[in-house]
Amino acid sequence: MNFEFTEEQLMIKQAAGDYARRELIKDVIERDTNAIFPTQHVKNLAELGFFGMMVDPKYGGGGMDTISYVLALEEISKIDSSLAVIMSVHNSLACYGIEKYGNEAQKEKYLPDLASGNKIGAFLLSEPEAGSDATMQRTTAEDKGDHYLVNGTKNWITSADSASVYLVLAQSNSEKKHHGINALILDKNTPGISLGPHEDKMGMRSSDTHSVMFTDVKVPKENRIGEDGFGFKFAMKLLEGGRIGIASQAMGIAAGALDLSINYSKERKAFGTEISNHQAIAFKMSDMAVKIENARNLCLKAAWLKDNGKSYSLAGAMAKQYAADIAMEVTTEAVQIHGGYGYVKEYHVERLFREAKLTQIYEGTSEIQKIVISRTILKD
Ligand code: CAA
To answer: How far, in Å, is the centroid of ligand 1 from the Cα of 281?
Structure first.
């Protein structure tokens, strides 16, 4: 085993961390309060190569590995996890989905713009009545010979407004149940697509989330990914990798909360000394550090398995479930350590606490991860 990072991986971590500490911190509270999409930061991070990180350089990507991706997401999430979810959905779902499962024409058409960050990608699986039970797709993609006609509604779509490239899951043959689902690439400006209002979320408020409605949207057959009926497997495969991204985000939120707690506890005095000298506080931070280290190792192991062509479904689910759950625990303790200051915006930990909650919900709830984990370990 080798626990050392390469020089390149460390440089990527440094670059992401520098940007987050120097730039994201400046307006993160304002963007959170007013739910402002970080347009300029997305542009800047794209220029630094973070919006097509793992895409093959021949399509304009950075050709980086998944370990680097985990390191970058941790650094960004410490400061601004809204930005991290935009990055995660774009890299792990949109870019990876087209690069891994698209045909050559689709890759050439879509990847250069996605990899340069000129266009943002979104993944449209969830529906008003199909969240955890993703097989129950009601959005239809009716086969009309040379094209599909798409009708229906998608819910909770990350980057719905800011994205230009949609990966949409829709049912083409309900008799075949999930084997009838197709995955289609759509340009957001195709006639018949409309958005619901901006969701007023508890956290991750600077990422834009909407429902998306399709009314007789014509999609050429050539925009289907894979064989007819491949859509559900496609979605499941993508989510295996997506969960590494969200796990890294959750772990980064927790790591950010610990950093803030350490700094605060060394400044704040109570009973004649810095509160870090009180065991009640120091032991909290000790527990937080152990949990974060465990989560980090699970994320890195899942990433390593992916980079080395091994199965990472189980490791990704474990990383996602554990990191999301400890992010909630760690941020709760961070608010507690900050006392009253933890309950106001200026000290950041209340935001991290709100953001942590979503990591237990999206890209498969913690309970869904337990389904994946338990089914896998009970299989043999
Ligand atoms: N890879 C490939 N195929 C898979 C798979 C995987 N990881 N997991 C399941 N499948 C296949 C199965 O082999 C099976 O295929 P066959 O019928 O051909 O044998 C088929 O899919 C159905 O599998 P299951 O019977 O296991 O399906 P299930 O209904 O019991 O559910 C589930 C499986 C894991 C619970 C799945 O429904 C699931 O992951 N649900 C959660 C959905 C989710 O994560 N949504 C997140 C939305 S995206 C998002 O949040 C993005 C964002 O904006 C942040």
So the answer is: 41
In ligand 1, the atom with minimum distance to the C-alpha of 239 is 44
Question: Closest ligand 1 atom to the C-alpha of 243?
Answer: 44
Measured in degrees and rounded to the nearest 5, phi and psi for residue 169 equal -100, 130
Span 123-179, pLDDT tens digits? 999 999 999 999 999 999 999 999 999 999 999 999 999 999 999 999 999 999 999
**How many whole angstroms separate alpha carbon 348 and alpha carbon 69?**
24
Indicate if ligand 1 lies below 6 Å from the C-beta of 92: no
In three state form, how does the secondary structure of 241-269 look?
A: HHHHHHHHHHHHHHHHHHHHHHHHHHHCE
Smallest CA-to-CA distance from 239 within 132, 353, 346 is with 132
Take atom 44 of ligand 1 and give the residue whose Cα is closest: 364
Strand pairing category for 121-124 and 147-158: unpaired
Amino acid letter at 110?
Answer: Y
User: What radius of gyration do the chain's Cα atoms show?
Assistant: 21
Whole-angstrom CA distances from 355 to 31, 47, 114 are 13, 26, 26
State the Cα torsion 127-132-135-137 to the nearest 10°. Answer: -10
Alpha carbons 320 and 88: distance in angstroms, whole number: 13
- Residue 363 annotated among the catalytic residues of the structure: yes
Indicate the DSSP class of residue 52.
Answer: S
